Amino acid sequence: MAAVRDPEATKARIFEAATAEFAAYGIAGARIDRIAREACANKQLIYAYFGNKAELFSQVLERRLVELAAAHPVDAEDVDGWIDRIMDYHAANPELIRLVFWEGLEYGTGGFPHEAERRRHYAGKAAAFAEAQEKGIIDSTIPAGDLLFMLTALASWPTVQPHMQRILVGETDEDRARLRASVRTAARRIAGLDRPEA
């Protein structure tokens, strides 16, 4: 009896294998044959589903960003909590930030696939900060988009640079807890929630 095909299960396996492959090797270094082998899928099927390697990368990254947004939506009215949740997410899912960095290396300042959708994605996040600024919850000195950009960098950098974290901060649980507290303090100051003592 022939095996029953399950296209959704196959696509899910492809996405998982592609996430690992792209996170490790970037777009240029990734190999569709390795993704096919890890996903137990036909190489031609990957091309049929996704078109090409760049499109597969784009869809993998977009799905991961949507998963993060759904799991931990921006909460500009609770900067401490949001920073904690984002730091925890990146620590548990380092492949997402690696995918973002590979995308930056590949496309630089030029356009990238599905850029309009990404702009909409982040416009919604920036709008949450703009709304908190309008309500007077956070300071409006820094434009909302700039603020989101800086806070995201603060929260994700330990995952991007674990070796520098080890050198500069330390590698014990106490060191990591201290860094997290420092990131929260910096985020609150950037957002105008805390003012340093005069």
UniProtKB/TrEMBL annotation:
InterPro entries per record: Homeodomain-like_sf (IPR009057), HTH-type_TetR-like_transc_reg (IPR050109), HTH_TetR (IPR001647), Sco4008_C (IPR041467), Tet_transcr_reg_TetR-rel_C_sf (IPR036271)
A matching Pfam family: TetR_C_21
Ranges for domain HTH tetR-type: 8-68
DNA-binding region(s), residue ranges: 31-50
Keyword DNA-binding: yes
UniProt keyword list: DNA-binding
Protein name per UniProt: TetR family transcriptional regulator
Lineage of origin: Bacteria, Bacillati, Actinomycetota, Actinomycetes, Kitasatosporales
